[in-house]
Amino acid sequence: MRALGYHLLIEFYGCGHDILNDVGKIKNLMDEAAIVSGASIVESVFHRFNPHGVSGVVVIAESHLAIHSWPEYGYAAVDLFTCGEDVNPWKAYDFLKKGLEPQSTSTKEIIRGEIPGDEDRVGYGPTLAKTEHALREHL
Amino acid sequence: MRALGYHLLIEFYGCGHDILNDVGKIKNLMDEAAIVSGASIVESVFHRFNPHGVSGVVVIAESHLAIHSWPEYGYAAVDLFTCGEDVNPWKAYDFLKKGLEPQSTSTKEIIRGEIPGDEDRVGYGPTLAKTEHALREHL
Question: Which of A10, B33, B52, B117 is 20 to 30 Å apart from B69, CA to CA?
């Protein structure tokens, strides 16, 4: 089997209220996260809600990065969905973790789009086995 | 515990090539899916890639809906991430399934943002127990 995409679902808990409410800073962090992961930005759209909270998506040529923040709970939900072998979403993860400074995190990795093929490849990373290894190294 | 968000990760396999390459039709389907689910659209951005494939995100006041299509494989990855009790992402799911006519599907539901609280509530739906019941009814 070959997988077309690789999706990280990240929960950042215990972030600062002010940064989670700052749409400009969050947009900059997300755009930069796309760049450090090796992705090509197609368009990025960000909004600040009243009374609080920011939502934003960076559409990349290799799928998307998204964030939704709940400053009142110190919580942000982040999605890093990438495809192709030239983008490493863990680099975006590390960059965002450094920028948002969560006190705790929880991350799920989901393989998207399994297509019959003779190579055990995922969208990101060389092979499924190597990706699991890379994940273990990361954790 | 209370959960802030409810996220469906959907794989649609065996869709028609032409519809998965038609950025106008896909945008209309996704916008309409947001509306039928009860969500409020903030902004929707869609792009068609060369030689094929469509990516798009509908930012809603209640998080986002996203799609990435691989017409060459008849495959689309759909994310329906909602929060609040007034949006039912399964209505968007049913609408998109009818519109994209996949031959097979695979869906994961992920609870996002678990916050201490005295009610077992998820972003969508009344209570965790009722949501599980609703899910079983749906399946």
Answer: A10
Structure token digits, residue A45? 């759209």
A9, A49, A112 ranked by CB distance to B110: nearest: A9
Angle at which helix A23-36 crosses helix A89-100, to 10 degrees, equals 150
Q: Please state the ipTM of this predicted complex.
A: 0.87
**Is the distance from CB of A70 to CB of B2 less than 8 angstroms?**
no
The span from the first CA to the last CA of chain A, in angstroms, equals 25
CB contact under 8 A, A68 and B115: no
Query: In whole angstroms, what is the distance from residue A81 CA to residue B83 CA?
Result: 20
Entry pTM: 0.88
Distance CA B12, CA B79 (A): 11
Tokens linked to A139:
């954790």
CB B114 within 8 A of CB B29: no
Cβ pairs bridging A and B (under 8 Å): 94
Shortest Cα distance, chain B CAs vs residue A123, angstroms: 12
- A7: its two tokens: 């999706």
Chain A residues with CB-CB distance to B75 below 8 A = 4, 113, 115
Average pLDDT of A85-107?
A: 97
